[in-house]
Amino acid sequence: MSIRFEELFRSARSSAYHLEMRDGYEEDDAFAAWQAGDRFDPAERWPWWIDLVSSAVSRGVEVRRARVVSEPVSAYIRYEYDLTTGHNIKAGEQVRWLPRRQANALLLPGNDLWLFDRSTVLFNHFDGDGRMTGEELVTAPEVVSGCATAFDTLWEAAIPHEEYRAA
Known about the structure:
The protein is α/β, with parallel strands linked by helices and about 170 residues long.
């Protein structure tokens, strides 16, 4: 987690929305453990996330995460799906999933992003293997507005986590 991200998250006043569009991210020890059959408690592995999000939610910040996924889902997305209830939702996030084939009519940004208070976008840049290569902070009103509209449209089309079944 970058210092910039944490500062933005901690200073959010009304909303923190996350858009994820990749079918895989850099594989780490937790993913390897999951693949080996270790169904660990994500809240125990990443208590800092539970603290960060629950603190924001308790001060009135709406935290949403929307994932655009290919189906059948990749092993990495199945891992994220399996951890969502004990990690994201337990922390206080609302999570929705949109099968990629249902996103054809949506105009989406080219990168994953965080949208804070509908005033700041933090784009996340990744290489082809899912390794984060950097972040880009943007406050230009036309970019922020476009990202907010894209997120809102995707959110309305997406399936709540409780109803989505990773195919």
